[in-house]
Amino acid sequence: MTDSTVANARRSIKAGSKSFGLAARLLPPAMSQDCVMLYAWCRHADDVIDGQDAGFVGAGNDATPPAERLRALRDETHRALAGGSAPEVFAGLARVVSRHAIPHRHVDEMLDGFGMDVAARRYETISDLLDYCYHVAGVVGVMMARIMGATDPGTLDRASDLGIAFQLTNIARDVIDDARIGRVYLPRALLRTQGLEGVDPDNRADRAALHRCALHLLDLAEDYYRSAAVGVAALDRRPAFAIAAAQAIYREIGVILRRRGPDAWDGRISTTTAGKLRLIAGAAPGTLLALRRPVPRFDRSALFRRPG
């Protein structure tokens, strides 16, 4: 893996996710580098499918139909995983997958998640939505956990739970922005509980009802965050600190959305740099600095069960 490959991956993170970038810097150097390379492929794949650049809509200019982009992305990824010549972001993924014995099916599961977006899948139930959340985020948690040395299925389940919690938080935050590009992740059954049949981003009369739907997802995310904390306790101190910090930063997005109410969608919902640093510091006592690390208890039997 060349220095330029890692440098480009870090630039991708800086543009696409400052929160992940901060958390990655808390990891041991080699572990951080591999997490960054995995993230870079995930970010690149997401941008290819969405026609974005580093996560910002409108920066991309690829007029190729999304289904063809997904097919090319899948082919390029499989070629790299099989040891063939590939662009650096794919070669970096292949190195990380090989080094940490990450099953190739996990990479395919994420590609299948992108396929759900390409097919404009609509979600009828919360169970349907959780399946999507696993494929685009839960499986990323599983792969990251393997980079951090976790192989126990129970710990990997908890890593998946954290990815799902992140994605549920994302969906709640982005209800209006997603609707503006034709994507609705709120399940139909949930919308109907509030007398809605869809999401009209320009109809402010629906905002209160949509906010109640978003709060339902945030309530659900709380169970997944609590479950993930059990897995964090199984990691070594440095990665446990990094993941606890990432969890605190991401969970804060939901806290802000709750506090601001429906008007939250009128602006950017994010934490300040000072707020992120405060949350990182708050993660240290229970992980990095604890004389005895507490092991929380949470029964995850009612949560999503990942494939395999």
From TrEMBL:
Keyword Metal-binding assigned: no
Name the record gives this protein: Phytoene/squalene synthase family protein
Database matches in InterPro entries: Isoprenoid_synthase_dom_sf, Squ/phyt_synthse, Squalene/phytoene_synthase_CS, Trans_IPPS_bact-type, Trans_IPPS_HH
One Pfam family, short name: SQS_PSY
Pathway(s) where this gene product acts: Carotenoid biosynthesis; phytoene biosynthesis
An annotated Gene Ontology molecular function: squalene synthase [NAD(P)H] activity
Keywords: Carotenoid biosynthesis, Manganese, Plasmid, Transferase
PROSITE patterns: SQUALEN_PHYTOEN_SYN_1, SQUALEN_PHYTOEN_SYN_2
Keyword Transferase: yes
Cofactor: Mn(2+); ATP; Mg(2+)
Signal sequence, renumbered to the chain: none
Homology family: Belongs to the phytoene/squalene synthase family.
Single GO BP term: carotenoid biosynthetic process
